[in-house]
Every structure is written in C-alpha cells, then in structure tokens.
Amino acid sequence: MMFYLNEISVFGHGPETARKLQGSTPHDQLLIQISDSFAGLLLFAIGFLLFMVSFVKDRDFQNFFAKGCILLHVFMALWRICFERHLEDLARDWPRQLVGDVVLSLSWLFFLVYSWREKYD
User: How many Å apart are CA 107 and CA 13, to the nearest integer?
Assistant: First the structure.
C-alpha cells in the first residue's frame, strides 16, 4: 500500500481528487506521507492486537473487546456523517465508507449475539 499510494488514490478517488489529495507544496506532501505512514502503523497495531485477542480464552474479555469495536465503528460512522461529507474532495466517498463502518460493526454485533446464544443455551 505504501509503495503504490498514488495508484491506490487514483483507483479509489479518481485522478483529479487524487492529485488534490497529494498536496500542492512539498511541506504538505511531507505531512501527507507522514500521516499515511502513521495510518499504516496503526493498521499494523490493530491487526496485531486482534491477533493477540483471538488467542484469549476468556469469553467476558472477548465480549468487552467486541463492544469496544462496535463503539469505535459507530464513532467512525458519526465522524463521516458529521465532518467528512462536508469536504468537497471526499464527498463522493463517504457513503461507501459509511456502509463499510456499519457492516463492520454488524459483524462484531453478530459475534456478540453468537456468544450470547452459546452462553445461554
């Protein structure tokens, strides 16, 4: 993802929006590259955390973790509704990303329902 950032931006947003999102000055471009690097680091940390939690046998902790993930996805959906839809360069993308946030939170909700069914049967 880091090596083909321009191609991914063009594929996801289109050529004009990708050009605008790259920044117009060298300082802006450096800030955007640093932001992308931190986003990649965050994705790696989240994946590692999910990998560690998958080996935990405590059902109560996994339910607590799933509730936290649901809350995180709900807040991301609210962020997209309240702020990202007002950015004209990203206005085309926020409904698709909102659907993704809702689907991910539903997947954690289905995990909770499955674990409750398993607990009370």
Answer: 26
Mean pLDDT, rounded, of the chain = 82
Q: Distance between CA 78 and CA 9 in Å, rounded? A: 23
Per-domain boundaries in the chain: 1-55, 57-121
Q: Which pLDDT belongs to residue 110?
A: 93
Q: What is the pLDDT of residues 43-100, one digit of tens each?
A: 888 889 889 988 888 888 888 999 999 998 999 888 888 887 777 666 677 788 889 9
Interior angle at CA 48, CA 21 and CA 100, nearest 5: 50
Quick one: how far is CA 19 from the chain centroid? 22
Rounded to two decimals, the pTM is 0.67
User: Helix or strand or coil: residue 88?
Assistant: coil
Tokens of 68: 């936290």
CA distances from 65 to 59, 71, 72, 100, 106 (A): 10, 10, 11, 19, 14
